[in-house]
Amino acid sequence: MLANGTARYALLIDLDGVIYQGDRLVAGAIEALDWIKRQRVPHLFVTNTTSRPRAALLEKFETLGFSASADEVMTPAIAATQWLANHGMQKAALFVPPATVQDFSRVDTVTLDSDAAVDAVVIGDLGEAWDFRLLNRAFQMLMRDPQPCLVALGMTRYWRGKNGLQLDVAPFVKALEHAASCEAIVVGKPAQGFFDAALEILGVSAERALMIGDDIVGDVGAAQRCGIRGIQVKTGKFRDSDLDGEIEPFAVLDSFADLPAWWERTLST
Amino acid sequence: MLANGTARYALLIDLDGVIYQGDRLVAGAIEALDWIKRQRVPHLFVTNTTSRPRAALLEKFETLGFSASADEVMTPAIAATQWLANHGMQKAALFVPPATVQDFSRVDTVTLDSDAAVDAVVIGDLGEAWDFRLLNRAFQMLMRDPQPCLVALGMTRYWRGKNGLQLDVAPFVKALEHAASCEAIVVGKPAQGFFDAALEILGVSAERALMIGDDIVGDVGAAQRCGIRGIQVKTGKFRDSDLDGEIEPFAVLDSFADLPAWWERTLST
Question: For domain A9-48+190-266, which CATH number applies: 3.30.1130.10, 2.40.440.10, 3.40.50.1000, 3.40.228.10?
Answer without folding.
Answer: 3.40.50.1000
